[in-house]
Amino acid sequence: MTRTQADPELDFYGSVVSELKQPLTTISGNAQLAKQLMRTDPDRASVALDQVVAQIGRMKMLLGELRDRARDTEHEEALFKT
């Protein structure tokens, strides 16, 4: 499939991927930081882990919104079937 400028579905999927990559990058970086700091600076490690938890919450929210949008689209299509 070739991408066209007027393809809102591809734009939507691109946005979803981008929105999900951001928290994953933050989670990965903070988990690595926490691992390094666990013995030398437990307070900073704890802050990094708090950020991991926050970003996981963000991903859960984004995935919930995506699921809800998919359900809404499903119901809309079923409603207008002839």
Structure description:
This protein has 82 residues and is mostly helical. It has one domain (9-79): Helix Hairpins (Orthogonal Bundle). 83% of the residues lie in helices and 0% in strands. The protein is built from two helices and no strands. It has helices at residues 8-37, 42-79. Helix 1 (8-37) runs antiparallel to helix 2. The protein starts with 7 loop residues before the first helix and ends with a helix.
Q: How many domains comprise the coordinates?
A: 1
Unreliable parts = none
Structural class: mainly alpha
Look up the CATH topology: Helix Hairpins
Whole-Å distance between the termini?
28 Å
Count every helix, treating DSSP H or I runs of 4 or more residues as helices.
Answer: 2
Q: Give the H and E element order.
A: HH
Q: Which CATH architecture is right?
A: Orthogonal Bundle
What is the number of strand segments?
Answer: 0
Helix content, binned percent: over 70%
Q: Which descriptor suits the 3D outline?
A: elongated
Please report which band the strand proportion falls in: under 5%, 5-15%, 15-25%, 25-35%, 35-45% or over 45%.
under 5%
